[in-house]
């Protein structure tokens, strides 16, 4: 099984039909792995995303996809940088996983497992991973517990005692009456009573967002939601409102949002946003908001769920997913449960597999090392430069930065190694020649310093700084005549440069 890496938006667009075909074939596939969702939200991931794509050979279509993201972190207390692989799209996705053609699952998931075993990472985080136990076991087969530490992370909200590893859902029957027959009598009566009032349309009514009302209805939803959660969400509230509103708007444009609003006369009482997976015939309840200052015969949340459930059944939807969280109210609707996996797997010694950084993060680590260097955090900066050089040993910026730090540590031999290698890559780098000469001067190896400056001047005979340094070391060697000539050359070049400037 061949594994390719897809990590650009254009490459992703090119496999749309292939992705949709695999998604349609996989009985475990769910909305947060659908093309509708993935195509919109992978690029919104601030970290570096990539998709593992499995194919039987170079001539065949892909038969499985595994969207991931690469994070680069820095350890505390001088541990250097390391990589973490997590599930892509987790910012807004309630859960995630992988998709595969079922007839190929044994081969594809095993191939993904082998890829992970070869990749450079110190932590693999499968947060809210949704899959069958067999699929997860295959994925972890190349990462045995005897070598890799596995940590099960609980996801219980202590404030509300809600377990976010539990996803309640309803397998919907063919008719509304059949669904109601499976509920408790109290819930059944509430639903029938309120829907009767809505159908009569005298005091209460429900509208569904369309192209003319979507912005108004999203404002109603998000304003109610923000009012309820303002204190608890604090400074994050504005960003959460903005991101969720944008996501709902995108889903609406893609035909994947069902947004009913319940009204009493002209006053909105509540709204409910549900994501729609047409391919898998699923409704996924995502977010609700209501006016908590108003009391009605049936709570607006119950009324909106009842309306949505009836609409779903009438339109051939087979699953009503309440997403993460075992809040008590969900169980009045006759739900079943599916459990998510929340795993962190750490590599031996908590170090990147292979002892090196993932090549895709090198530019970020180099940038961070340069920032640390500028901030005078020299040990961390040097560690970053060396980690970059482990992956890209011909990186000019890392060689130069590391050489500078080694000079400050008075490791002149180490600095010379860096500067010599850099000169072999960039022979016209003026500053590097000068710094190479300074490493000899620092150890009073004036003859070697003079030789270095002369070699440089053969390449750049108009460099005044090199003549000036050469003059200094010639004086130290007692060669006053040659030193005077070098000083004169430096002075002449400086005057010429000054005249050109003026």
Automatic annotation (TrEMBL):
<keyword id="KW-0802">TPR repeat</keyword>
<feature type="repeat" description="TPR">
    <location>
        <begin position="396"/>
        <end position="429"/>
    </location>
</feature>
<dbReference type="InterPro" id="IPR038740">
    <property type="entry name" value="BioF2-like_GNAT_dom"/>
</dbReference>
<dbReference type="InterPro" id="IPR019734">
    <property type="entry name" value="TPR_rpt"/>
</dbReference>
<feature type="repeat" description="TPR">
    <location>
        <begin position="430"/>
        <end position="463"/>
    </location>
</feature>
<dbReference type="InterPro" id="IPR011990">
    <property type="entry name" value="TPR-like_helical_dom_sf"/>
</dbReference>
<protein>
    <submittedName>
        <fullName>Cellulose biosynthesis protein</fullName>
    </submittedName>
</protein>
<dbReference type="Pfam" id="PF13480">
    <property type="entry name" value="Acetyltransf_6"/>
</dbReference>
<feature type="domain" description="BioF2-like acetyltransferase">
    <location>
        <begin position="185"/>
        <end position="330"/>
    </location>
</feature>
<dbReference type="GO" id="GO:0000030">
    <property type="term" value="F:mannosyltransferase activity"/>
</dbReference>
<dbReference type="InterPro" id="IPR016181">
    <property type="entry name" value="Acyl_CoA_acyltransferase"/>
</dbReference>
<dbReference type="GO" id="GO:0035269">
    <property type="term" value="P:protein O-linked glycosylation via mannose"/>
</dbReference>
<dbReference type="InterPro" id="IPR052384">
    <property type="entry name" value="TMTC_O-mannosyltransferase"/>
</dbReference>
<dbReference type="Pfam" id="PF13432">
    <property type="entry name" value="TPR_16"/>
</dbReference>
